[in-house]
Amino acid sequence: MTLTLPMVLIAVVGVFLASFVDAIAGGGGIVSLPTYLLAGLPMHMALGTNKVSASLGSIASTGRFIKNGYVTWSLALPAVVLALTGSALGTRLQLLIDEKYLQLLLLIVLPVVAFVVLRQRSFPEEPGEISPKKQAAVVLAAALLIGSYDGFYGPGTGTFLLLIFTRWGKMDVRTAGGNVKVVNLASGLSSMVTAMLHGQVFWQLGLIATVASFAGHFVGAGLAIKNGSRIVRPVVLVVLVLLAVKVLSGLL
Description:
10 helices, globular, mainly alpha, 252 residues
């Protein structure tokens, strides 16, 4: 495949916007994958190249959250293991079940999730009261469950983790964001290696887009850390709407 200027321009703009959104509230893949398809990449290569720019770019946002002390390593590390396990299980399940059934389920779930987000005026700026054992149970169960969803279908994984970590895990929005970034980074790097081994990466475009992804993640993470719930809540709602549109378009 030959790299062209229009291809680069489409990828750089789309990936920057996707990464900006992803750093704040997750769900960047809803924007970045269609960007690569619009740039002219076939589906499998678009998926693989997207993993390169998304995973390497997310190092920027993950690093900012770690630097500011918003990662609970005692929870994040086992959550990574369970998310990777769930992802492998989800991928196997995908081979057995038509994904349209999951899309139909999402059409029921998404309005409920949006209703929950709208009901709470803001994401918590301070951690809530919860026992360490209960918080660990919530975080690890979510990592396994949503990790399975990620392997089966994928879009919105970070957003769902963020919602669960804040609502039921009682984390403040910044700590929840930091832990989500660590889990997503590990999962993304694993997928990137798989795509690379199968030769489904357009490296020239992927590495150029990685620069845009890094910039988007860096700026987005900075805004999330500085503004907290004021910026996370509206971006989460935008991601949920985009995900609903993607599911509907897939069914139609």
